[in-house]
Task: inverse folding
């Protein structure tokens, strides 16, 4: 399908690019060589741990991917707007991301089944997705009411987020799983994340700093794409490119989430 092809291009280009400068962010965050080396080992260790988990249980790996991505989506989107304490922030950010995933999965259950069975041999049941959708919505609602009543945030913030959810519902309802994910992943997450990263690394957002960011990320982006192509060729049992894309995203999500958390804290 043309729309899925467009989605693949978006995720493989901008999506993977937004996580390709993690090491540069670490070097900017930690000026001391010993700390940088320590963080580099931690970063590689997280990637290896993800690989081990996937080899041990691909289903557990996918669940972890969803949970980590959910938290990361929430932190990136709301981290500069909401700040109560670590526990509240973590629950609120996680609830936000899980609501996005559950909303997407609920609209494309058959596609989710196909990809999950190819990846793991198992899948998420409809009731599991519905419970996640309801519980995350309740958690977000309670958290939002608390933030409004304690006057930590204006109600207009949550009205805007509600309208975003309505828009995403319409997008997910009228597109495939891959395209729906790509639209959210690129427009709501990757592009804003790249902007924040450029501002953190270079101090401001301008054409020169954007070009510098892309140049520095290029080598890691090429390595990721090469890895994707190799996996797609050497694993004949994998029929969907979407499956390979999700494997690559899982491999980089955990360390990227750690790096972004350090950048923001």
Result:
């Amino acid at each position: 399908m043309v729309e899925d092809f467009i989605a693949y291009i978006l995720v493989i280009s901008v999506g993977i690019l937004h996580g390709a400068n993690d090491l540069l962010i670490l070097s900017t965050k930690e000026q001391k060589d010993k700390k940088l080396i320590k963080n580099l080992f931690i970063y590689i260790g997280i990637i290896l741990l993800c690989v081990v988990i996937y080899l041990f249980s691909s289903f557990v790996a996918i669940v972890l991917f969803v949970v980590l991505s959910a938290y990361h989506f929430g932190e990136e989107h709301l981290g500069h707007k909401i700040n109560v304490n670590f526990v509240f922030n973590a629950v609120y950010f996680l609830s936000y991301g899980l609501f996005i995933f559950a909303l997407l999965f609920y609209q494309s259950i058959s596609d989710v089944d196909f990809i999950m069975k190819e990846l793991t041999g198992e899948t998420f049941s409809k009731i599991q997705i519905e419970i996640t959708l309801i519980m995350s919505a309740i958690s977000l609602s309670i958290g939002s009411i608390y933030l409004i009543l304690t006057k930590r945030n204006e109600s207009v913030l949550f009205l805007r987020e509600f309208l975003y959810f309505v828009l995403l519902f319409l997008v997910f309802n009228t597109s495939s799983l891959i395209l729906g994910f790509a639209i959210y992943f690129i427009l709501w997450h990757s592009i804003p994340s790249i902007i924040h990263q450029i501002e953190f690394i270079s101090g401001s957002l301008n054409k020169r700093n954007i070009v510098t960011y892309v140049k520095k990320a290029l080598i890691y982006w090429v390595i990721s794409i090469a890895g994707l192509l190799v996996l797609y060729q050497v694993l004949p049992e994998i029929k969907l490119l979407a499956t390979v894309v999700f494997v690559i995203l899982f491999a980089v999500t955990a360390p990227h989430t750690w790096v972004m958390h350090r950048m923001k804290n």
Notes: The longest helix spans residues 207-234. The mean pLDDT is 83. The chain is about 85% helix and 0% strand. The radius of gyration is 18 Å.
